[in-house]
Amino acid sequence: MRTALFLLMLLAVGAVPGSIFPQRSIDPGRVADYIAANPTVAPWLDRLSFFDVFASPWFSAIYLLLVVSLLGCIVPRVRAHWAAVRTQPPRAPARLDRLSAYAEGESATTDPAEVLDRAEAVLRRRGYRVARHDQTSLSAETGYLRETGNLVFHIGICAIIIGVAYGYLLGWRGDVIVPAGSSFASTVSTYDTITAGPLVDTEAIPPFQLTLDDLRVAFEEKIASQLGAPRAFQATVTTVERPGAAPVTQPLNLNAPVVIDGADVYLLGNGYAPVVTVRDSAGTVLYREATPFLPQDGSYRSVGTVKVVAAAPKELGLSGLFLPTADPRTDAPVASIFPDLRNPELVLAVFEGTLFPGGRAQSVYTLNTAEMTPVKNSDGSTLVLRMRPGDTMTLPGGRGSVTFEKVIRWAGISVREDPGKPVTFVAALTTVAALFAMLLVRRRRVFVRVGPRGGMPSPAGAAVPSPTSRPSPSSPSSPDGITVVRVGAIAKTADAALEALVTSLRDDLTRREPKA
To answer: DSSP assignment of 73-125, as one string?
Structure first.
């Protein structure tokens, strides 16, 4: 178990570089930028797979060793537990008063065997396994479910790890932003980001088509303390599972994914996509798209870029903010004061030069200005465009014009296929149930000794009890048909209810039976 704990700690330490350095599986553009900015250190980090931590050989080795170590702990314990369950409870000790809990009483029943029969019946009703090794004592034990829960818990942990690994190897995930009224076809090239397991054939991804017909978003407007909080978020989509199949229109909610050909389609987020048109000086359209901007706060102040590769003689890049409800005060900072469309404004800085330095990939939501310069006004100040829907602004120097036509909403769609999810889900539920068994079940052993008064040695005969000890009265030496009942119990762990258990059992065995 120490080895498993060490490997678990090592796995946590090994995951740290994955949160420090950019990962190719999440943002290859950031990885390329990091390598370009750190030409000395980055190649060594790349050799050590610090940009692919969770797919690296060393991380996988720790992962596999952890599973092997857990199995190595579980198998011997299962054997020992199985043998313990099949073994009878041990004989009752001679001195029950030395156990953790002890009680003594007298029964009017003249036959000690009858008292043992009653004790056996009471203990079996309480779920104890009972064994009688002689005519004057009885042994019982319970709580093996605690160790069973412990073993099932560790087996469940192994199953979760195996389920996650299975899902990683054979699962895939693709994310895409879809403006309202637009469609996308599920192919590798149409996803904004896609992550596929090593054993996934990306050409076999389900070829469905999804159209975002409508997106309804509502925000709190009446309660001042919750102003702008989201209150409703629902999309209506039309899906075509395979080419030639009939289209199906259905709602898509945050917690209710749509299943298409084995893949789960989730609604993740939403935002705004200003429709921007860029023309050259002759009026030719160089760029016209609904360009998604990414929200940065609860008021949906959003950032985004417009990249005009077709511009000449230099490429154009526009980067800035979209404000769904811009602060109308002229002296106010550039900010949105409400997430819904009340006073939309687009604020853009204009750059010209090379959009993709060195041909390196980059995020569509950021602008690399390493080889670009800001466009200036005629007075030498930096050009900043502030536009409302319908506005057109002419760029200086015959560079053309920019038109802010309208605003539409976009929805973040995530498509996932995880074959390991059922295994992981069942294992997680089993692990939680086993954890409750570990916490709630107590491992106990109870012993009962009976005999005629005067025929059993007094527990106080060996030593005089201290004033703080439990009372242990001596039995009279004269036989008078009274049966002395002594009950002792011990628990494997701290058990505050053990005294009450022994006292209750003693009372049950010494209670006078009503006459018929």
So the answer is: HHHHHHHHHHHHHHSPPPPPPS-GGGSSEEEEEEES-S-HHHHHHHHHHHHHH
Domain shared by 242 and 330, yes or no: yes
Q: How many domains does the chain have?
A: 3
3-state secondary structure 398-457: HCEEEEEEEEEEEEEEEEEECCCHHHHHHHHHHHHHHHHHHHHCCCEEEEEEEEECCCCC
Predicted local confidence at residue 510, as pLDDT? 86
**Cβ-Cβ contacts under 8 Å for 381 (sequence gap 6 or more):** none
Average pLDDT over residues 84-111: 88
Tell me if 509 sits within 8 A of 485, measured CB to CB.
yes
Paired residues of 138 in beta bridges: 448
Same domain, 77 and 95: no
Sorted by sequence, the CB contacts under 8 Å of residue 397 that are 6+ apart come out as: 375
DSSP 263-330: EEEEEEEEEEEEEEEEE-TT--EEEEEE--BEE-STT--EEEEEEETT-SSSEEEEEEEEETBB---T
Inside any domain, residue 516: no
The pLDDT-based confidence of 56 (bands split at 50, 70, 90) is confident
Angle at 110 between CA 105 and CA 116, to 5 degrees: 65
Residue 61 inside a domain? The answer is yes
Place of tokens 């989730």: 266
Gyration radius (Cα) of the chain, Å = 37
Confidence at 318, pLDDT banded by 50, 70, 90: very high
Task: Say which CATH number the domain at 121 has.
Answer: 3.30.310
Note whether 72 and 110 are same-domain residues.
Answer: no
Q: 274: closest CA among 346, 192, 350, 328? A: 346
CB 193 within 8 A of CB 413: no
| 96 and 77 within one domain | no
Boundaries of domain holding 494: 89-143+442-510
Q: Does 126 share its domain with 107?
A: yes
Q: Which residue has the higher pLDDT, 10 or 360?
A: 10
